[in-house]
Design brief:
This protein is mostly helical. The protein has helices spanning about 1-15, 20-50, 55, 70-80, 80-110, 120-125, 135-150, 160-185, 185-195, 200-210, 215-230, 230-235, 245-250, 260-280, 280-290.
Length: about 300
């Protein structure tokens, strides 16, 4: 009798919409495996960066036999990592600023005004994301070389040329993303700003931009991460003086040996700005990526 009452009480406590226990256990197992799949490579990187080169080159061990932080000091001497770091900051930062500024004006115009060719413009902007980046490598190379020969402006092998290159594939996505976010901002705010005496630019910077901060931050994070870790264009469009971090990491591989412990240490150092920025702007990034999904 008591067991029957207990069963009835347990059944009453469970919500009729609650998932079955088998699903809960399956979810826990899946999340545990997924967490291990993500954290194991990070552990291998960290442990390998704290080992001498002979330990990394030999048989892999989960627990280091001899811990050392020497690789974190050697990475700055083996290759000019500091110069590559500065180049990456300048290129990624300039590409991010240019993408955000141009995308804000373009997206505001598309979302608020009607003009001839608006549909064609938006479709063209989105269609650029359908083509692989390597398709533009040779045309951009020839354009930069010809511009340099004709005008003396050295775009090939310069930071400015690399910034323009990154804008070709970060700017279209930024515009398309901000169009959806600006359209989710009520037009009544623009009308209220106009009544108060603001012009189009005043309404943009005083009303729309503050309301669209999460979307703008998401665009900025996307543009920065794309430029920071890009390898294909940076390996062709740069020289020894303008080389970025993504390409400079190849300098730890020589003809005689590969400094795996320094590669892992440098990879962790390179990842710090991106990870720190992502953690600081995470709440804005999530809000910006989900903007416009529900209106």
């Amino acid at each position: 009798m008591s067991s029957t009452r207990a069963d009835r009480a347990g059944t009453a406590r469970r919500s009729p919409t609650a998932p079955p226990r088998s699903f809960l256990w399956a979810r826990r197992v899946f999340l545990t495996l997924l967490t291990g799949f993500v954290l194991v490579p990070v552990y291998v990187m960290v442990s390998s960066s704290l080992k001498p080169l002979q330990d990394v080159s030999g048989k892999f061990r989960w627990l280091p036999s001899d811990l050392t932080i020497r690789p974190y000091f050697d990475i700055w001497d083996t290759v000019p990592l500091a110069d590559y770091f500065v180049n990456s900051l300048i290129v990624a930062g300039a590409a991010t600023v240019c993408s955000v500024v141009v995308a804000v004006f373009a997206a505001y115009a598309v979302s608020r005004y009607r003009f001839r060719g608006k549909r064609v413009f938006t479709v063209t902007v989105l269609s650029t994301q359908m083509f692989p980046g390597i398709l533009f490598l040779l045309p951009l190379f020839l354009i930069y070389v010809n511009i340099g020969n004709a005008t003396g402006i050295a775009l090939f092998g310069s930071r400015g040329g690399l910034i323009l290159t990154y804008l070709t594939f970060s700017l279209p996505f930024s515009i398309w993303m901000l169009i959806g976010y600006f359209e989710s901002v009520p037009r009544e705010l623009d009308e209220a700003a106009t009544v108060d005496g603001c012009g189009p630019l005043g309404a943009l910077f005083r009303v729309v931009v503050p309301a669209a901060i999460p979307g703008i931050v998401a665009v900025a994070v996307y543009a920065f991460m794309t430029a920071w870790g890009e390898v294909l264009f940076a390996s062709v469009m740069t020289n020894e003086a303008t080389r970025t971090l993504a390409v400079g990491l190849q300098g730890y591989a020589t003809q005689n040996d590969v400094y795996w412990n320094q590669v892992m240490a440098a990879s962790l150092v390179v990842s710090v700005p991106v990870v720190a920025g992502f953690l600081l702007l995470q709440r804005y990034l999530v809000a910006g990526l989900t903007a416009g999904a529900v209106k």
